[in-house]
Amino acid sequence: MTQIVAHRGNSSVAPENTLPAFAAAAFGGAHFIEIDVQVGGDGSAVVIHDAAVDRTTDGAGIVAEMRATDVKHLDAGSWFDPGFAGTALPLFADVVDLLGRFPEVGLLLELKGAWRPEPTQALLAQLASAGVTERVIAQSFEVEMLRTLATLAPELPRALLVQEVTDEALATCAELDAVACNPTSASVIARPDAVDRVHGAGQQIFTWTSNDSAEWAPLVAAGVDGIITDRPDRLAGWLAAQ
Ligand code: G3P
Ligand code: CA
User: Fold this and answer.
1) Residue identifier of the C-alpha nearest atom 7 of ligand 1
2) Which of 23, 44, 184, 192 is most enclosed, with most CB atoms within 10 A?
3) Which Gene Ontology BP terms does the record give (predicted)?
4) Chain segment 94-113, per-residue pLDDT in tens
5) Beta-bridge partner residues of 110
6) Is residue 31 annotated as a catalytic residue, yes or no?
7) Residues forming beta bridges with residue 137, ordered by sequence position
């Protein structure tokens, strides 16, 4: 069964990387919620895609230079739609709380940038104390980040984000003992044998980011394990109709 992975939550109906987007994803049939986490200047884990808050909030500044108290009051909803005015920019702890409300939903946790060991350990401790580690796959474009996670939390499943499945990507995924090797959807549609290559290495493959059936159909035919999409509710309906 193809896993439905909600990219930044259900980011087509609610502002990306916010609790409403995550709840909409869970209620809409997503198997996993994908989130982006950046580390703040005080070591806090901030749920936001960009390195700066400017695009998706009413504030300005670099996340790595801000504290939790700086970001908590920002409006992360108005830019998307006035109906979401006042939506908070979440911290990672808010997402962990939300997972408690949706015990069937997994978390595809993308760590953005390079994290020092201390904030990484703090994030891992939040997962462990909430008892949700087994529902999480941590992913990153940063090989060093995944090496750090492998050292600090070998039990936490890891995935490498890549542009395409190459010999080098496969070798790195193997070295990391990754559970998944996650390339762009376009690369898999162009070379569907990528799926067999990843499966042959004993890993899963989740592709990003596809929002309509013109891409969902060839990805399902190729046998991907999951599709990362901004439209998880639509993908759920489309899959049900097949
Ligand atoms: O999950 C993969 C995808 O989210 C990576 O790209 O830029 O949307 O974080 P980006
Ligand atoms: Ca992401």
Assistant:
1) 49
2) 44
3) lipid metabolic process
4) 999 999 999 999 999 999 99
5) 36, 139
6) no
7) 108
